[in-house]
Design brief:
Layout lengths: L2 E2 L8 E11 L5 H11 L3 E5 L24 H4 L2 H14 L22 H20 L2 E10 L6 H4 L4 E6 L2 H10 L3 E5 L2 E7 L5 H14 L20 E5 L5 H13 L3
Parallel strand pairs: 2-4, 2-5, 3-4, 5-8
Antiparallel strand pairs: 1-2, 6-7
Length: 259
């Protein structure tokens, strides 16, 4: 459960609930997180991509001689991410020195049924009011990331853990449709645009995804296996079989149970 922290100006204790939304690149994590943020009152989004090292510090793959943005050991600055999540868990506020590049990336609109959004907004608004009558203010932190369940220091801080699974062929197609990713560059808050070199999916992205997530699925079967239990209470959703409305519905049901 989320932690209870110091009193605010209305003498409410603050309960921070961190929700993990993990899955491969192009699995719909960020789109889902943004829809949930519109539904959940007092919510913030933390993008794992924003904890990648500056481009000039990203390691080079020893075989293919290209920068490797996907191998978990070098793709994320883990101490910085862990400390930032601890700060959010404590205060409910993203640290002011944190810089996000998500707004620079291509944003594909995936609309959501207004009725569904309104219905769940009313549910969580009422739950928020009930909590405040009991002296508790709830703040939601939505954490999305392609390596969200690799480092125990990250996933152990999450109060709900969701994984979106999408078949490789669809992920690959979506990745190829993207024009690139904005990444951090030292001394440049706007970062730099990264575009995949030839064969990057087959040589770097997909193998790294399988390796990073093998342990969290039964028999190491990332594409078809159920949760192995390594990540406690992991909610696995085969996202390609569901519409965005169904994904939001399922996640809201999960989040309702955290209160």
């Amino acid at each position: 459960m989320g932690s209870l922290e110091s009193n605010d100006s209305t003498q409410h204790k603050t309960r921070i609930i961190l929700v993990g939304i993990g899955g491969a690149t192009c699995s719909g994590k960020t789109t889902l997180a943004k829809h949930l943020a519109r539904i959940l009152p007092n919510s913030v989004i933390i993008h794992q991509d924003d904890f990648a090292p500056p481009q000039e510090q990203v390691p080079v793959h020893p075989v293919y001689n290209v920068q490797d943005w996907d191998a978990p050991t070098g793709a994320i600055q883990w101490p910085r991410m862990v400390e930032s999540l601890k700060e959010v868990k404590k205060t409910g506020v993203i640290p002011p020195e944190h810089i996000s590049h998500d707004h620079l990336n291509e944003q594909k609109d995936v609309p959501l049924n207004d009725g569904l959004m309104l219905r769940w907004s009313r549910v969580f608004d009422e739950m928020q009011r009930n909590a405040e009558r009991g002296g508790i203010k709830i703040i939601w932190g939505l954490v999305d990331g392609f390596l969200l369940y690799w480092h125990p220091g990250v996933y152990e801080q999450l109060d709900a853990r969701i994984f979106l699974r999408v078949p490789e062929a669809i992920l690959k197609h979506r990745r190829y449709e993207r024009h690139g990713y904005h990444t951090a560059v030292q001394f440049d808050p706007e970062g730099s645009l990264w575009r995949d070199p030839p064969n990057y999916w087959e040589q770097i992205v997909w193998p790294a995804y399988l390796e990073a997530n093998r342990d969290i699925f039964a028999d190491g079967d990332v594409e078809h296996g159920g949760p192995s239990g390594k990540v406690p209470q992991l909610v696995l959703i085969d996202a390609i079989e569901a519409s965005m409305e169904e994904l939001v519905q399922r996640c809201c049901e999960v989040l309702k149970e955290t209160l």
